[in-house]
Amino acid sequence: MSEAVVAVRLSAIVAATVFAAGFAFGILRIWVVAPLLGPLTAVVLEVPLMLLIAWGVILWLDAARILAPSSAILMGVSAFILLQAGETLFSGLLGPGNAFAANVQVYWADRSPERWVGFLGQVLFSTLPYIQVVRFRRHER
User: Rounded CA gap, 46 and 22, in Å?
Assistant: First the structure.
């Protein structure tokens, strides 16, 4: 099996795990934390936890030992795309309106500060496989 295929498969595992954790944290954020502290503070608290979970899953998968830096970039980009696709699909199905396309449009039109913080967290998430590979290679010498 090629390293690229391994990278994409690992990305699917990471994206699915982070999506599931994000769903659970999202419920807590929306129903518990945001009413108490505000939506922006809730997202600012959630993002580091999500990144920590992603970091742990990537470590658990031992991606740094398996992948070359170029494949780690592929893994990060693939995981980001899969996570965005999952969120888009989820928002379309469970958004506030009845029409899938309208819900997706509302999701992607959101320019709130909390949406930008969450998006920045997802961009950082996409760099984690590469960071782990580079760190592993430095410590391997």
Answer: 9
Under a CB-based contact definition with an 8 Å cutoff, are residues 57 and 128 in contact?
no
Average pLDDT of the residues in 88-105: 76
pLDDT digits (tens, 9 = 90+) for 63-86: 989 999 999 999 999 999 999 999
Which amino acid, one-letter code, is at 59? L
Give the largest Cα separation in the chain, rounded. 56
H helix intervals, the chain = 3-28, 34-37, 39-60, 63-66, 69-94, 100-109, 113-140
CB atoms closer than 10 angstroms to residue 93: 10
User: What's at 74, amino acid-wise?
Assistant: L
Closest CA to 136 of 51, 59, 75: 59
d(Cα 136, Cα 131) in Å, to the nearest integer?
9
Using alpha carbons, list the distances in angstroms from residue 63 to 66, 78, 100, 129.
5, 14, 36, 7
Query: What whole-number distance in Å separates Cα of residue 122 and Cα of residue 136?
Result: 22
